[in-house]
Amino acid sequence: MEDRLYFLLGDYVTCILSGAIVGVFSAWFFDPSWGMMSAMLVGMVLGMIVGLIFPGGFCLHYFGLFELMVPLMLTTMMVGMVVSMIATMNPVSSSFAALIGAVIGIFCLRLTYRWNKKISGVVPEYGDINCD
Amino acid sequence: MIDLKTQNKWNRFSFGYDLMVAKGAERRWMPTKKNVFSKMEKDKKILFMALGTGLDIVLFPPNLDITAIDISPKMLGHAEDRIAAYEGDLKALVMDVHDLEFEDNSFDQVFTACTFCSVPDPINGLKSLKRILKPGGELHMFEHMGSIHFPMNVMMKAMSPLSSLIGPAMDRDTVGNVKKSGFKIVRVENIYMDVVRTISAIAE
């Protein structure tokens, strides 16, 4: 797991900010006139696009590439899907949508940290022969 | 013969490449890259593939004899100051990995860093590297590649056609390509999930 403060902060800021922004966007874009399934599918794709452009593009430049891209994509997909689903049932306020987005952002980041901890390191099937 | 399409692509990107390249990724990967390059050994003939603008030179151990290649003369033009600043013997040549102009069995070690995501024909490129390596010669790679895990594999496959237009492919099976090109893999380490990896292999 990442233990350098600069990158840890960068990871959290990126996921929280992108989750909140995608949440607000989805709350604004979707309303009860949408069908739930179509809103969820469109929400996932739009969420990813919006999140990767802003703040993704900026944050990826300064804080990392794949280490950020993976949680960022998961966050934006999930937030787009969840907020759009809620918005098809009831109108969602911007602040509530931002809160949902931020919480999902933290959840997705923690999930990828755990996932990475589990699979990072030497891959056993190739052994670990020192070729020096 | 040089692949002019690829050369033109990287010539175009050479202007402003250092500004465009993700500073965060470079800083984040620095300790791992430094560790990979620490395997460069004195008194061995070393080839570094795809030097680009020379961002990695600062991580090379000093006092080594390194030959570096890149397909783009403009990229190497931007690397001149970094090449001059290296405390050792570093020669940079314009060359295409698919058509290396070196003799067979002429290098002891080959190093790559985020290169085989962009090589148009990775298996042939790796076969070229195997040809110029002495038997028992070492290949050390720091590369990003596609994942086998859902949903990352789907996301990366979806992004790859777009990312390939401006630079790297996201869904390469680089470990599989190293095996297919005839190397014996001795170590694979997942640096970030199974997306960013280091690979050590031997030319048999």
Structure description:
The complex is a heterodimer of chains A (132) and B (204). Chain A is built from four helices and one strand. In chain A, 48% of the residues are buried. Chain A is mostly helical. Chain A is elongated. The two termini of chain A are 27 Å apart. Chain A has one domain (13-113). Chain A has helices at 5-29, 36-63, 66-89, 94-119, and one strand at 121-122. Chain B contains seven helices and seven strands. Chain B has a single domain (4-203), classed as Rossmann fold, CATH 3.40.50.150. In chain B, a hairpin with a 3-residue loop joins strand 6 and strand 7. Chain B has helices spanning 4-14, 17-20, 23-37, 73-85, 122-132, 152-166, 174-180; strands at 46-49, 65-70, 89-94, 107-113, 133-144, 183-192, 196-203. At the A-B interface, helix 1, helix 2, helix 3, helix 4 and strand 1 of A face helix 3, strand 6 and strand 7 of B.
Instruction: Describe the largest sheet of chain B.
Output: 7 strands, mixed
Number of domains of chain B: 1
For the record, the count of structural domains of chain A works out to 1
Helices of chain A, by number, come to 4
Shape label of chain B = globular
Shape of chain A: elongated
CATH-defined topology of chain B: Rossmann fold
Terminal CA distance of chain A = 27 Å
Compute the CA-based radius of gyration of chain A: 17 Å
Characterize the main sheet of chain A: none
Order of helices and strands of chain B: HHHEEHEEHEHHEE
Strand residue percentage of chain A: under 5%
Count all strands of chain B and give the number: 7
| pLDDT averaged over residues of chain A | 90
Task: Give the uncertain stretches of chain A in residue-range form.
Answer: none
- Judged by helices, strands and strand pairing, the structural class of chain B is alpha/beta
Low-confidence stretches of chain B: none
Q: Given the structure, what is the number of helices of chain B?
A: 7
Secondary-structure element pattern of chain A, one letter each: HHHHE
Q: What is the CATH architecture assignment of chain B?
A: 3-Layer(aba) Sandwich
Q: What is the arithmetic mean of pLDDT of chain B?
A: 92
